[in-house]
Amino acid sequence: MASKVVYSPRDPMLKKRDDFVDVLEERRRSSDLRYALRCYSPVLYKGPTTSKASELKTMVLQSDQLHYVVNQVSRESGVPLDDVQAEASVILEEMAHRLQLSTVRFFAFTLSKVFKAIFRSICVNEEGVQRLQQVVQEHPVVLLPSHRSYMDFLLMSYLMYTYDLPLPAIAAGMDFMGMKVVGEMLRMSGAFFIRRSFGGDKLYWAVFSEYVKTMLRNGFAPLEFFLEGTRSRTSKSLTPKLGLLNIAMDPFLKGEVFDVSLVPVSISYERVLEETLYARELLGVPKPKESTSGLFKARRVLSEDYGSIHVYFGPPVSVRSLAEGRVNRSQFSLTPRHIPRRPSEDVHSFVNDAAYRLVRAQEENMVLKPWVLLASLLLQNQAAGQNRGVPLDELIQQAVWLRDLCRQFGAFLHWPDHIPSSEVVSSSLSLHGGLVRVSEDRVYLALEQEPHCSLTAEEELLSQAVVVLSCASYRNQVLHVFLRPALLAAAIHTASSSQKQEVYSSFLFLRNMFSNEFILCPGAAVQDFEEACYLLTKVGALHINQHKVLTAERGHRTLAFLTSILDPFLQGYQMVCSFLCEDATQALTERRFVPAVQAFIIKHLLKGRLRYPEVLSSDLQRNALAALLRLGAVQKVQGGEESGTLKVNRIMLNSLEDTLGGRLSTQKALRAHL
Amino acid sequence: MASNSCGGGSDRQMAAQHRLSVIAGHLQRPSGSNTAVLAVDCKGQGSKPFVSSEKRTVPRRRQEIMKWNGWGYSDSKFVYNKKGQAEFTGKRYKLSGMIIPGLKDWMENTFGATLQHKAAATPALNSSAVPPPTLNEAFVEELKSTGVPFSADAEDRVFRAHGHCLHEIFALREGKIGRVPDMVVWPNCHSDVVKIVELACKHNVCLIPYGGGTSVSSALECPPEETRSIISLDTSQMNRILWIDEKNLTAHIEAGIIGQDLENLLNESGYCTGHEPDSMEFSSLGGWVATRASGMKKNIYGNIEDLVIRIKMVTPQGVIEKSCQGPRMSTGPDIHHFIMGSEGTLGVITEVTMKIRPVPEYQKYGSVVFPNFEQGVACLREVARQRCAPASIRLMDNEQFKFGHALKPQVSSIFTSFLDGLKKFYITKFKGFDPNRLCVATLLFEGNREKVLQHEKQVYDIAAKFGGLAAGEDNGQRGYMLTFVIAYLRDLGMDYFVIGESFETSVPWDRVLDICRNVKARIIHECKDKGVQFPPLSTCRVTQTYDAGACVYFYFAFNYRGLSDPVHVYEQVEHAAREEILANGGSLSHHHGVGKLRKEWMRETVSSVGMGMLQSVKDYVDPNNIFGSRNLL
């Protein structure tokens, strides 16, 4: 069905994007105090609004929805009704926000100071803000920012305050509550807290979903949450989590509101505050528990330069128009709407597709800095040449080439054209001095440690991996631009012939394999393939006719670049396969999977059999495992003594590994397994 | 001659007229002398009708008293007089001859429709634009021998080729004529119908029964693909009450009688049916049965399915009827339910036995103002919960309240206008109602005086709990009057580039507010989307309450200046609105029926098996599709 949809090529270079305005400029010119105390009068939703947080709580506690579940829980557990009701109200108390303008003003003041200290500029597309001002009056709004840093939601609220927009209610993870003072302050600036997991807790789910829906139905405030669920440690967009989106769409699907507007917001940091922290975390050093004192230690951060931030408010997406022709809404009129029901198959797939589209919209409006290109080039160079470094002029020349390719692919690249390329490159390099070194006109990744202590080979490898992973997180920002052409390039590389059908099935295989790793919209394989073909033909890298896909003479450089950008992932997945085949013990559980596979990979890296330290990333390993579980090459044992252990299908893993390595034709592999 | 049987003294007639004016005060003035006189006689009818009267509203040649391209009587319409004030012409209605000062401004403010921009209709039917009839000669020959009157006159045929959907009337105003029936026949009684149907089967011609012609579902449209000769079977001359059974309180009536005649005639004997659909001035008993009609006062008298005892229908397979008049039967699925809602696809309903009630001794209008629509709906829900709904209770939203206000006739005394001002002040300033949010419920109580007053108090007490303030009888009465003149108002709108329509649904209580909000918003949204240059009127009212839900009416109109194909835009918007209704848990129709307009949603409404059931009935009863209107299925 989906394969019938033909990709209609629209030149991505023509993609219209708004201009930016720096909000810090105004802050540097006028008083922060006056700014924090100014008259704040946001535009409001036209419908009847509830303005008090306490009224909201009462509405939730008295709702039919909650009453139903309270009764149900009481009946099932034998706990008296009043106790369950009381528990519900405790849950709500723990969850609910208590928005206070004074706290917001405090944040407006301090954040102004902090932002000015560490950022050069915070650029916002004001046309997007105007669109938001419009839509906020019309429909309940859901803000969906990308999530790369703790900074994200502070920044969002800061901007909403700056532009006289209603302050959002933000879904935040419970871990913030650990930070006593800060947690409460966040609560008073609009955050509400949800437990990370509450799988079977009906009551919790009921309170939570009703709280969110009540806010939407009554136009209380824009709802804000992160589709990706958590901060992406890799700067790659994470596959979306559907829970909150399901809840946010529910009032529309059940006809309780006319429409809901979803506004994807792309926040891109030139330098992420948590950059090396993330790399450590990915390597298995557990993340420090959020604590207030920890935050103060972060004060040293204040003396650093984090470049600029770009915030792009994307065009609002109407849930109504998304659902048009996709969801039969009358299905919700056959049972009382307050009885919780699992979403039907069609609703689930609708929400899933919508979520992917929204994450894609976030990706596409992320501003890319020149450094992102440099990081990609340096990493490829590093893998190829054992860190002998690149001559600076060569790097500049390569960067300019990549810049042009990027633009042809429609990337939202901020490369200042009025400055000589050499200056652009050297200023980028200096901003990221912690990751890269320039000496004798050669550029190196900053892998060498100060020789003050004697490290074991393994420790040295890990510390190098921190730098590589940090760099990779910048390269990852550009991956979404290259992903589809890169999959095609890799498919051409692995396909046994240049027959279009053959290449397509290779493409399909890789796309399927990597759909936990990258944002690939479900059911859009044909469009993705057509898009990749279109782009690569456009840049003159491929000749494609009815039956064949042929590499053009001048296409080798492009294809080589594209295949190598995907190579770490290809190799990483092969590593995981071979680990599972060779080294996995009987009692391997999901929990012990990451340390075990990391140890396995370290061995290979040290022996020089693997060139990519970034394969040590637990994110990649987990994604690979998820893919293998999805494909059925690994199974999780349910129940019994071995419950939770991973059962491995060696034959299948072997052939997947071979196919990834291009040693087995995909058609055979597909026939065998998919 | 039949009229002599109960001609009675003029005293009795006077008394009846008096009652009538009280009871149907909202409806019509006591009819003047201009109603057509018609001799009624049926050769096939052995016995004389029990009740009859000289006065019949509908002559064979309808065009003599009714508009050919608009609603209702030719003499009644809204016009702008020389002073630019709106006026309602004629003598038939309470509003007739009155100036309506607020209407012009309302039209301007609501639609941007001004006097300068007039869209005149084709003044008279151009007979040459009507396609010549395709006659089935053999059929015509045999028909002649039966003596049943018929006509192939262009005007007669065009008049029966349409109902009152917007696109139908719009086309007529433009002088566009599509496929029309090839012939009109006027059977006089049941046996005439039997003969006609037999001949139709014999000669394979297509029959489309025609009652009052008030359909708003494209049910009367001739299928353009029909190649056979199409005969419009006009039942208007089958309009007698054959007997009244006072012991069982039933009456046996020919199905062609129209609502107002039925009530008038029964009133003469001190009875009524209480069935008052908004179209009752023109719609017929047979039409009610064939579309599952609903009356305004169904809370006391019930809808048509509650009122009928026995139905006689002539089908290609013969006559279908029950053998007794038991008030309820357990004899398998009720065959009446194949007939009710069959929309002319199975046969012609010729005679109906239905319940009658004594004319109520007392009737009182009322109205309640609520601070907002939400409170109003909550009140109606509570009234339904307590099962104490008056004969009629309707809740208009704010836009419709303003509309009703604009239709206030010029007040004669300064005192009245002073009182009005005072009332307005009390409600908006003293009680703090927002004039842009408040809404009004209109009420009609019926019964004996004591009980009515008691009932009234009960309802007002409930209303008070939802912030409702009693707002007088006048407002209530005007609300009901509106129902009858609104169709005339559409013609005025069309004179000034405004097109509009109403449509209805039924919906569970918990969905009422949501469906009202969403459908109204969808209409506005779609109009904008489709390039309508002016903001549309999108308004609704809750017109009936049931135990488990309510009937909701939507009105929608817009100024179409600047659109090249306004009717198409209109249809797209209406289509979208219906989709929205269904998506919000509303029904395909509460009482207008399906016709051809809403056919596309039948399958999802009744499921494929349901469709199969209906189809198999059709296949058995009418295998050659003699009743070929192609409605419903």
Provide an overview of this structure.
The complex is a heterodimer of chains A (674) and B (633). Chain A folds into three domains: 53-97 and 138-283 and 319-365, Glycerol-3-phosphate (1)-acyltransferase, CATH 3.40.1130; 369-446; 471-673, no CATH class. In chain A, 53% of the residues lie in helices and 9% in strands. Chain A has 674 residues and is an alpha/beta fold. Chain A has 26 helices and 16 strands. Chain B is of the alpha+beta class and 633 residues long. Chain B contains 19 helices and 21 strands. Chain B has helices at residues 10-23, 103-111, 137-146, 154-159, 166-173, 190-203, 259-268, 285-291, 298-301, 304-307, 336-339, 373-385, 398-406, 414-430, 449-465, 473-495, 512-529, 566-583, 602-621, and strands at 78-80, 86-88, 99-100, 150-151, 183-185, 206-210, 230-234, 241-245, 250-254, 271-272, 308-315, 318-320, 348-355, 357-358, 362-370, 392-396, 439-447, 469-470, 498-508, 537-545, 549-559. A seven-stranded antiparallel sheet of chain B has the order 18-15-17-16-20-21-19, sandwiched between helices. Chain B has a five-stranded antiparallel sheet with strand order 8-9-13-11-12. In chain B, strands 4-5-7-6 form a four-stranded mixed sheet, with no helix packed on it. The A-B interface holds A 255-256, 258-259, 328-330, 332-333, 336-337 and B 508, 510-511, 514-515, 517-518, 521-522, 525, 582-585, 604.
